[in-house]
Design brief:
The chain is mainly alpha-helical and 160 residues long. 59% of the residues lie in helices and 10% in strands. The chain has a two-stranded parallel sheet with strand order 1-2. It has a two-stranded parallel ribbon with strand order 3-4. α2 packs across α3 (35-58). The model has no long low-confidence stretch (mean pLDDT 89).
């Protein structure tokens, strides 16, 4: 959450001449509702059901798919990610993530009394899951999106 998946995904797709797809944007387009509203009405489990269905639709397309940060919490999604040719884990530190998400009211999981503690817990829970499916781990702290994209392309071109 806040690692830059959408921004970097768009730039990467453009540089590679591929389509770009974002699970969160697709969920909002299909439902006509924003993510916080879906969380309010259906809860996190309802949102994760929608996310799972959209993810499995989007991976059939040719392109770069930016997933929501919680895609890895569901085992079936991790199994699918592990089978994909390239999965990039954008790794950002807690300070960077907090800076990027501090005022964003569209992140339902952070609308709590102590968002930093929540972010630390989410990070601790999800980081090992992302590492288990990633073919590339790219640290993004202090980097501009174009720099991250360049690093991804360099690593993809040298990866076996």
């Amino acid at each position: 959450m806040g690692a830059g998946k959408s921004t970097i995904g768009k730039l990467l797709a453009s540089r590679l001449g591929l389509g770009f797809f974002d699970t969160d944007h697709e969920i909002e387009a299909r439902t006509g509702a924003d993510i916080p509203w879906i969380f309010d009405v259906e809860g996190e489990s309802g949102f994760r059901d929608r996310e799972h269905a959209v993810f499995f639709d989007l991976i059939k397309k040719q392109g770069v798919v930016a997933t929501g940060g919680g895609i890895v919490v569901r085992e079936e999604n991790r199994q699918q990610l592990a089978m994909m040719s390239k999965v990039v884990f954008l790794m950002a530190g807690i300070e960077q993530l907090m800076e990027r998400t501090y005022k964003d009211k569209k992140r339902p999981l952070l609308q709590v009394d102590d968002p930093r503690a929540t972010m630390k817990k989410i990070f601790a829970d999800r980081e090992p899951l992302y590492r288990s499916v990633a073919s590339l781990v790219i640290e993004t702290d202090g980097m501009l999106p174009k720099q991250v994209v360049g690093k991804i392309i360099d690593r993809l071109s040298t990866a076996p």
